Amino acid sequence: MPSDQNLSKDSILYFGHLEEDHKLRKMLDKKLDQFLVTQKLNKFPDYFWGAEKYGLEKSHLFKKLKSEEQTQVLKQLSQMNLALSWYIERAAYTHGAKMILASTTQEEKMFYCQFAFEEAIHQREFENMMDFIPEEDSHWHPMVDVLSDSIQFGERETSIFMVQVILEGYGMYFYKALMDSCLHSELKKVYRRILTDEADHHGSGLILSEQNILSEKSKQEIFKYSQKFLEAIQISGELIKSIESVHGKLSKEEKDLLIEEIGYKRNLEKRIKILKDLLKRVDHWGLSSMLEDAGSFEVKELS
Ligand SMILES: [Fe+2]
Ligand SMILES: [Fe+2]
Fold first, then answer.
1. Ligand 2: centre distance to CA 258 (Å)
2. What separation in Å is there between the alpha carbon of 119 and the centre of ligand 2?
């Protein structure tokens, strides 16, 4: 299947909605409701994760902010976590659709029908916890670009490896950490439920990747997207941006101190190690050593 036909970034991430009162929308809501563990919240907390999630309780600069400014920072960071989760699920059902078309057996096609349906449910579960609609400009994260590019441009094998092995493998760690530190019982329940499905999605990626014989093209794509993924998990931009939005621009010294006090580098090293261990377990053709040689496992200079 030509991988880039009919797919665009807009069709994977940034598509619109039907009118509120559209009959199909009502029909879908009714269907989805049968499978959800939550309902739309009628009261939204200011934030779902506290300062401890980010180590901010150790930052002098954060502690000096007024209480309402601290709330504002935590609110923005909660929105970023939810928006990233929402975009991941949104892209995942289009991955499922691509795989239905690209698969050649009934079992694979049926599996991906189920896969796509579960991803749609996940997105709705997150939506029920959100009082905002993510926007391309304000809620963008580099991880969604890697995800969307591998779906749009990657060979079938590349998409399976990037979405189901890497993203969903790492995503389980990411979602578990969000679940454990979440302050809200309903959202905790959502992450717990989704994690069960993601374990199957990741598991199926492992099974299929073991069978796949990769073309040179797929290997090159996987190497390129894995490098980008490793860069994407290291960005510190959203944390700095949310603090600057209430404090004003931070000097280099203030940024360095903030990053030091919250233990950000240790956190990045941990994330990289998780990905490195994951890649080692699934590496049949030398991907880990290619990434090692390219310096991709080194912690980048923080900006
Ligand atoms: Fe999902
Ligand atoms: Fe998934």
1. 34
2. 6
128-163 burial by CB neighbour count: b if 16+ within 10 A, else e?
bbbeeebeeeebbbebbbbbbbbbbebbbbbbbbbb
Note the pLDDT tens digit of each residue in 104-132.
Answer: 999 999 999 999 999 999 999 999 999 99
CA 247 to ligand 2 centroid distance, Å? 37
Task: Give residues whose Cβ lies within 5 Å of ion ligand 1.
Answer: 89, 119, 122
Host H or E run for residue 203: helix 185-211
How far is residue 128's CA from residue 186's CA, in Å, rounded to a whole number?
10
Residues of the chain with pLDDT > 90: what percent? Answer: 89
Return the pLDDT at 212: 81
37: closest CA among 246, 191, 238? 191
CATH class, 66-293 region: mainly alpha
295 Cα: distance to centroid of ligand 1 (angstroms)? 30
Hunting for tokens 């030509």 — which residue is that?
A: 2
Average per-residue pLDDT for the chain: 94
Residues 6 or more apart whose CB falls under 8 angstroms from that of 93 comprise 116, 117, 119, 120, 123
